[in-house]
């Protein structure tokens, strides 16, 4: 299917990454035409089926609804429930601390990618490339290491391994969220580093991930004066950062995902309905939401902005095309369904791979 053949409602819906509540999934793709859904291991209450059969059945039901209402598949971002996750919490940090070789980590990441794809999940919320300069900050507990070079080496090993399994990756939080002591979940961070300080420790890991084919990035809701001198811009709403630097200088050609819009940092300059328009115009191709009540107002706001010309058709089509390209890369454009019997066979094989001990912490 070509972008020009889509209705304006389908185009706008393609920008929405909504939280996957199983009992609301059909409504999300039917009414709001959501292009992606966020599955967070049961974080949304009813999205944690506890068996391979139930996960595959749910994901197939969602795909059937998307094909019926939108004519195209939906891509799923996140992770399965804990019972099927196949990894220990903070496994990558623990592997690095234990001295596991990058090559073995890369292979372990490929096991995760194969597991995700077997279950019908298409994009992982990693690698986290933040290099922390402070004892506080966003999701510091999920860091790879406190050493910049180690973050670069192992972050890229994870990226390569996952991509080799034809599962997407999301580098986060761009740019340089580790370089501020504040957390954009509940504050308005500012990165005070000069551009020449940003590059070697905080930007180079992204560049290498991009060069290897990283499929998505997650924006940081923070100001970065070295990359955008406008004090009213956060990275998520900054065209200089998301278009000039990310696309122009770093040649990233995947999907730019706005980090969750419910975070305080996103709302620095106004209400959600206004800021999502600014985010799309700056270069965001997907708007992540964790509150299902926000889906309707965000859809309506973006649709009105497109119809009024506040979001140019060219910018909308560019974002939609990136999502369509991702579907093709995943090879699900024609058939997005998964088979529970095949998934069980694959997961049993993966669990017996020697590198699985890296994921489970047995090293």
Topology summary:
Elements: H1 8-14, E1 16-19, H2 25-30, E2 36-40, H3 52-69, E3 75-79, H4 82-85, H5 91-97, H6 102-119, E4 123-124, H7 148-164, E5 168-174, H8 195-211, E6 216-219, H9 239-249, E7 255-258, H10 272-282, E8 286-288, H11 295-308, H12 313-330, H13 340-351, H14 356-360
Parallel strand pairs: 1-2, 1-8, 2-3, 4-5, 5-6, 6-7, 7-8
Helix pairs in contact: 1-11, 3-13, 6-7, 6-13, 7-8, 10-11
Q: Tell me the overall shape.
A: globular
Distance between the termini: 45 Å
Order of helices and strands: HEHEHEHHHEHEHEHEHEHHHH
Treating each run of at least 4 consecutive H or I residues as one helix, how many helices? 14
Overall CATH architecture: Alpha-Beta Barrel
Give a short account of the largest sheet: 8 strands, parallel
Helix content: 40-55%
What is the rounded Rg?
A: 19 Å
Mean pLDDT: 95
Order of strands, main sheet, comes to 3-2-1-8-7-6-5-4
């Amino acid at each position: 299917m070509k972008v020009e053949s889509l209705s304006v409602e389908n185009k706008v819906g393609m920008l929405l990454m909504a939280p996957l509540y199983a009992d609301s999934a059909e409504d999300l793709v039917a009414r709001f035409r959501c292009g992606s859904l966020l599955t967070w291991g049961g974080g949304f209450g009813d999205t944690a089926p506890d068996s391979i059969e139930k996960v595959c059945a749910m994901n197939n039901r969602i795909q059937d609804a998307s094909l019926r209402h939108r004519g195209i598949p939906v891509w799923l971002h996140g992770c399965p429930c804990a019972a099927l996750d196949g990894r220990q919490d903070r496994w990558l940090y623990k592997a690095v601390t234990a001295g596991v070789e990058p090559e073995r980590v890369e292979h372990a990441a490929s096991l995760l990618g194969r597991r995700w794809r077997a279950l019908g999940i298409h994009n992982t919320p990693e690698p986290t490339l933040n290099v922390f300069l402070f004892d506080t900050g966003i999701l510091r507990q999920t860091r790879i290491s406190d050493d910049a070079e180690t973050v670069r080496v192992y972050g890229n090993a994870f990226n390569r391994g996952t991509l080799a399994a034809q599962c997407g990756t999301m580098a986060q939080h761009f740019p340089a969220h580790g370089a501020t002591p504040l957390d954009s979940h509940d504050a308005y961070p500012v990165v005070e580093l000069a551009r020449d300080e940003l590059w070697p420790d905080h930007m180079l890991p992204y560049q290498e991930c991009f060069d290897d084919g990283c499929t998505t990035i997650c924006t940081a809701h923070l100001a970065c004066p070295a990359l955008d001198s406008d004090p009213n811009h956060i990275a998520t709403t900054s065209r200089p950062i998301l278009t000039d630097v990310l696309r122009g200088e770093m040649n990233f050609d995947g999907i730019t995902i706005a980090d969750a819009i419910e975070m305080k940092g996103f709302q620095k300059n106004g209400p959600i309905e206004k800021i999502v328009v600014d985010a799309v115009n700056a270069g965001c191709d997907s708007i992540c939401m964790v509150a299902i009540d926000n889906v309707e107002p965000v859809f309506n706001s973006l649709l009105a902005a497109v119809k009024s010309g506040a979001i140019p058709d060219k910018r909308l089509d560019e974002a939609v095309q990136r999502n369509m390209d991702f579907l093709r890369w995943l090879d699900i454009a024609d058939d997005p369904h998964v088979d529970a019997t095949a998934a069980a066979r694959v997961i049993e094989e993966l669990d017996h791979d020697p590198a699985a001990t890296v994921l489970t912490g047995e090293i």
